[in-house]
Amino acid sequence: MRDPNEERAHLCVDECQRGGQASSLTEAAPSGAAESGVMYLGLADLVTRWVYTRQGVHRLMRGEGFPAPAFAINRGRTKVWRRADIEAYELAHPELTDEEKKLSKVRGYCIAVGRG
Fold first, then answer.
1. Where in the sequence is the domain holding 57, given as residue range(s)?
2. Less CB within 10 Å around the terminal CB: N or C of the chain?
3. For residues 85 and 41, what is the distance between their CA atoms, to the nearest angstrom?
4. Digits of tens for pLDDT over the chain (116 positions)?
């Protein structure tokens, strides 16, 4: 049996695809839930959020510690993550959201491999 939250997210995906809306998805929380909604992010959202290329995000996805997708659509080809999981990953990897930390990491890599 399919999880009701996953079912609502799939319905939201279908609606967004028909309406041409942004790929970020919000679902209503069950009644009595503490949070008003759960946001889902797709690959395009991560590319925009981190100012990475699609290839760069795919490389991160293969790395250790990257969160597992909440679910996949399009016969498993399109993965969708919970925003909370991505935010937790960002806390562990500040270079994703902070340009200065990103440059510092690049400089450190260049020094380590003898290019800087």
1. 4-112
2. N
3. 10
4. 545 545 555 444 444 444 434 445 554 433 333 344 669 999 999 999 998 999 999 999 999 999 999 999 999 999 999 999 999 999 999 999 988 888 888 888 899 888 76
- Does the predicted model carry a pTM greater than 0.85? no
Which letter does DSSP use for residue 3 in this model?
-
Residues, the chain = 116
Q: What number of CA atoms fall less than 13 Å from residue 24's CA on the CB side?
A: 11
Tell me how many domains the chain contains: 1
Q: Which of 22, 63, 68 is nearest to 45 (CA)?
A: 22
- Compute the distance between CA of residue 52 and CA of residue 1 in angstroms, rounded to an integer: 37
Is the dihedral angle over the CA atoms 87, 38, 8, 15 positive or is it negative? negative
Q: Which amino acid is at 33?
A: A
Beta bridge partners of 82: 40
